[in-house]
Amino acid sequence: MSAPRSFVAGLVAAFALAAAGTAGAYHTNFVASRCNSNPPTAISHITRDASTTAALRARWEGYQWAGGCWNDNDVDDSPGDPPGVAGTGGEGGDCSGFTFKVWRESASTSDGGYYEWHPLRFVHGPYTAADFKAGVGAPNATMSKADTSRMDALASTDHIGMIYARNADGSDLIIEAKGEAYGTNLWTRTYRGSSSYGGVRRLGWASVQPN
């Protein structure tokens, strides 16, 4: 599930507190010990292939509500975090933070450019799942679910998952940060058939790799 807007607005402050090793930090201390606040790298374009690869690197990693930092060792390094608590400092993104980083978006809602965020960069981004569903922000747009393709997304007001492949039976193989008990992975989902989900696209995909 996506963090409410009040938590998203406070993520920078939460990270600073976690990094300072406050008493409220969760015992695994993943964010404070492993994550960083390095700026993103501006890039000239994005492709669906490259973003698919970025998403798959987070497969089998953890889930952290309002989070946005993970490594690439195929295991949740902060298992058993209390669900729905933003300040536990565990590994992983939540659904909207994961989408934000994979879609290489800016921390500014008015900027439609492309930014490479390292997996260990702690950043959630300004969007909730509801924002993505509504097409909020310069990089994002709503679209017909029938017209979605790989690395577009299906979003409700409290969850978003990116399409890895469409299945012949009308379901989709979705890559998503699902929850503390599930982590981040690929699952077959029927979001497309649910009236609570709409289609979302990150604008500006390059159809071929520029020279």
Report on the architecture of this protein.
- The chain has 211 residues and is of the alpha+beta class.
- The chain has one domain (5-204): endopeptidase fold (from Nostoc punctiforme) (Alpha-Beta Complex), CATH 3.90.1720.
- The chain is 20% helix and 23% strand.
- The chain is built from 6 helices and 12 strands.
- Strand 8 and strand 9 (172-179) form a beta hairpin.
- Mean pLDDT is 89; it is low at 11-25.
Structure described in brief:
The protein is an alpha+beta fold and 211 residues long. It is built from six helices and twelve strands.
| SSE order, one letter for each helix or strand | HHHEEHEEHEHEEEEEEE
CATH architecture: Alpha-Beta Complex
What's the number of helices? 6
Percent helix: 10-25%
Q: Which structural class fits the helix and strand makeup?
A: alpha+beta
User: What sort of overall outline do the alpha carbons produce when their principal axes are compared?
Assistant: globular
CATH fold field value: endopeptidase fold (from Nostoc punctiforme)
Strand tally = 12
Portion in beta strands: 15-25%
Tally of domains: 1
Catalogue the unreliable spans.
11-25
Main sheet: strand order: 6-11-7-8-9-10
Q: Class in CATH? A: Alpha Beta
Radius of gyration, in Å, reads 16 Å
How many angstroms separate the termini?
A: 38 Å
> What number is the mean pLDDT?
89
Major sheet summary line: 6 strands, antiparallel
